[in-house]
Amino acid sequence: MNTVAPETTTLDIEGMTCASCAAFVEKSLTRTPGVQSALVNYATEKATVQYLPDQASPTTLKEAVVKAGYGVVERAPDTSAADRQAALDEQKARTYQQLKRRFWVAVGLAVVIMPLSMLMLWPALLQRVNMQGLNYILLLLTLPVLLYSGREFYVSAWNGLRHRAANMDTLIAVGTGAAFAYSLAATVVPGFFTSRGLMPEVYYDTTATIIALILLGKVLEQRAKTQTSAAMKSLLGLQAKTARVVRPGGQEIDVPLEQVQLNDVVVVRPGEKVATDGVLLEGASAVDEAMLTGESLPVEKKPGDAVFGATLNTTGSFRFRVTKVGADTMLAQIVKLVEDAQGSRAPIQRLADKVSAIFVPTVVVIALLTFVLWFDLAPVESRLPLALVNFVAVLIIACPCALGLATPTAIMVSTGKGAEHGVLIRSAEALEKAYRVDTVLLDKTGTITRGEPAVTDFIVAPGQDARRVLQLVAAVERQSEHPLAAAVVRYAEAQDAAALPATSFRAVAGHGAAATVESQVVLIGNRRLLQEEGVVLPPELETPAAELLSQAQTVLYVAVAGRAVGVLGVADTVRNTSAAAIRQLQQQGIEVVMMTGDNPQTAAAVAAQVGITRYFAEVLPPDKAAKVQELQAEGRTVAMVGDGINDAPALARADIGLAIGAGTDVAMEAAGITLMRSDLQGVVTAIALSRQTIRVIRQNLFFAFIYNSLGIPVAAGLLYPVFGWLLSPMLAAGAMALSSVSVLTNSLRLRSFRAN
Amino acid sequence: MDTAEIFVTLGGLGLAAFVIWYFFFSARQTAAAASTAGGVQQVAITVKGGYSPEVIEVERGQPVQLSFYRAEENSCSEELLLPDFSIRRELPAFRTTLIELLPQRAGEFEFTCGMGMLRGRLIVK
């Protein structure tokens, strides 16, 4: 009995071209001694083999595959996403080079074929040339164009036909194929034509020129296409390649990014990129997060703050603990979100989709009918060439490329551009909805305001040293965990007030706090605290306190050694950018409405400060969605902007939800658009971007539809009875090549989008 | 009408009728996914001028793994789109690209090439 446990390995098989090849490889592996089972998947090109390691080895398995006539690809260990992308890019570059080569061969030969075909236009010259011989020369020159440059069209058309699928290649193949077949017949059996009173005309120039022009279109298209995803590529390229990890012994070593693990400690020196997401442990610096948030000013980071991969450290140096790697990082999530959006379908595209689905077969039918009608109605001596030329022209002009490219290319450029500005669009549908918005509903806290209290005013009684009072107050508040205390400490630190030690700290629930600083009892809290401690508020502090209260601010009173010495006004402050952003939205004809849980007085004060005239006050979190509905009932298309978990229902209810700041995942999940920057400027950018994108898509669709709906009848010869106009198939090919290029170029205009 | 005209007319109309039948009304190749031990529904699809099979049946609620092998270099099929699942993926030529998704509701979902010319359907039952 064999006691060795079987092992399983996966081999990458190369060279299989059909399902029976897979069966062949499988048989060869199964017959190898020691192999217990072998399963070969043709589609994935993988063989999963279970074998006994004492009787078989990866080498013998490989030999078995080679014996069967196939190969095993050696897989490089740990190929990173960047390497795979590089391999993919390399393959694409190779295909592009091949395409260019095929194009230049076609151009080179067409340049010779054209003037030779023109000889027929000079009867004097024609008499000296052997027509038959010339036709054979043209045939020989056209064959490489057909078989080398245009080969892909015929192969693709044939593959498509077998699947009952038709694409632009079908049209080109049938069109040029028909022109070539006719010319071939006229070259080889001219007698057949002359005996029926027809000139044995050839269309080699048409065939060669059409192929050259279509290839020109493809070359230009391929070049433009790579630019549509440039924004995404540059985002991915921002990632650091290595990280300087601190080993347990304190040694610092550079390791590839893929080897960085959770909880590793990473050193970031001035000017370096942050390798991955984490929490700052020691040191401090300002970090440029523009690549993630679109915010151009560097953000100050201190211990405890989150740092993100791919952001750029400025002048300081710090160490951070890794909290996220690979696909969990912020950058990876942004890339994923944008990719998802690029894969989604915009409702505006529905009509184009329906048309594309039936387009090619319909065009083939139109071309056939064109042929029949021209053959039946034209004069007998010219009916066959006329029918043929118009048949080819209809097929060639009706390229559905422009239609297919119109929406996706614009969405690709625009979502990538959005990411550059810190505007993450979840789907093409969200982009389209944002375009129709006429009302923006803003949640006050955390959206218009910073969402955290800050000291706005600090007034001391006459004769008091403000700096000294602030030092004493901050000493007490440093001991407290209350959010208002944190606001006071931040204020004191911003004023560079020296830190003093405090003793005997006690928090008075609901009132404030007290402690002894430099042998004096310092009190800070609300008015009740002062009253309970028997401190009288002098009139010179009474007036400013009343003033602050009238502005809907929270007032903190300070007493030192039993005497009231100052008051502090604390409020949730309006962001610097809010008023300007709201004004810009209003200038775009959008009504801005505010909603808050605060009392009407506070709501009115904030609304007035930022220029909002309509607001809802005292809205409880569960009622936020109802307010959205209320606005929708007025016939408005509402964009809801919010930042917290309690905003999620309202974000989902709105026509389009914009989650502000990458705050909570719940809010992001419910929103169609996420703004990485924590200010309203992102809302302006998102709406402006959506408006510009939809405008571009509409132009694209208009051009694509107009081009095809006008081009086909002209090519069919509808204008011939009236004006005597016919469309040369070569002109049709030129127009076709330009149509998709013009749609792409129009979409690429979005790359120059600037916020504001 | 001379003989040639009659011949061309009948031939043209016949061909047109054939084109309409062939592309719009003829039967399509359907395949049901094979489930693996892990409960993953796997389907191998070859991309060559179209998708074969082009109609795929899967069960709702179970993960689906579609392996697309692109057996051509033609640019028409270089992208795959499954808009209902927000998937846009490049299919490198002569390679297999795995696409994983979880169908949570029943229905028919189309997958197409980047330009919407090549089409297939995922039927979730």
Q: How would you describe this structure to a colleague?
A:
The complex is a heterodimer of chains A (756) and B (125). The model of chain A has no long low-confidence stretch (mean pLDDT 84). Chain A contains 29 helices and 25 strands. Chain A starts with 6 loop residues before the first strand and ends in an 8-residue tail after the last helix. Chain A is elongated and about 125 Å long. The relative contact order of chain A is 0.09. Chain A has six domains: 69 residues, Alpha-Beta Plaits (2-Layer Sandwich); 149 residues; 64 residues, Calcium-transporting ATPase, cytoplasmic transduction domain A (Distorted Sandwich), CATH 2.70.150; 158 residues, no CATH class; 143 residues, HAD superfamily/HAD-like (Rossmann fold, 3-Layer(aba) Sandwich), CATH 3.40.50.1000; 121 residues, 3-Layer(aba) Sandwich (Calcium-transporting ATPase, cytoplasmic domain N). Chain A is of the alpha+beta class and 756 residues long. In chain A, helix 23 links the parallel strand 21 and strand 22. In chain A, helix 15 packs antiparallel against helix 27. Chain B has 125 residues and is an alpha/beta fold. Chain B has one domain: Sandwich (Immunoglobulin-like), CATH 2.60.40. In chain B, 18% of the residues lie in helices and 42% in strands. In chain B, the strands form two sheets. In chain B, strands 1-5-11-10-7-8 form a six-stranded mixed beta sheet, with no helix packed on it. In chain B, strands 2, 3, 4, 6 and 9 form a five-stranded mixed beta sheet that branches. In chain B, a hairpin with a 3-residue loop joins strand 3 and strand 4. The radius of gyration of chain B is 19 Å and the shape is elongated. The N and C termini of chain B lie far apart (55 Å). Chains A and B meet through helix 3, helix 6, helix 12, helix 13 and helix 15 of A and helix 1, strand 3, strand 4, strand 6 and strand 8 of B. Chain A: Keywords: ATP-binding, Cell membrane, Copper, Copper transport, Ion transport, Magnesium, Membrane, Metal-binding, Nucleotide-binding, Phosphoprotein, Translocase, Transmembrane, Transmembrane helix, Transport. Chain A: Its main location: membrane. Chain A: Pfam families: E1-E2_ATPase, HMA, Hydrolase. Chain A: InterPro entries: ATPase_P-typ_cyto_dom_N, ATPase_P-typ_P_site, ATPase_P-typ_TM_dom_sf, ATPase_P-typ_transduc_dom_A_sf, ATPase_P-type_domA, HAD-like_sf, HAD_sf, Heavy-metal-associated_CS. Chain A: This is Cu+-exporting ATPase. Chain B: It holds the Pfam family Cupredoxin_1.
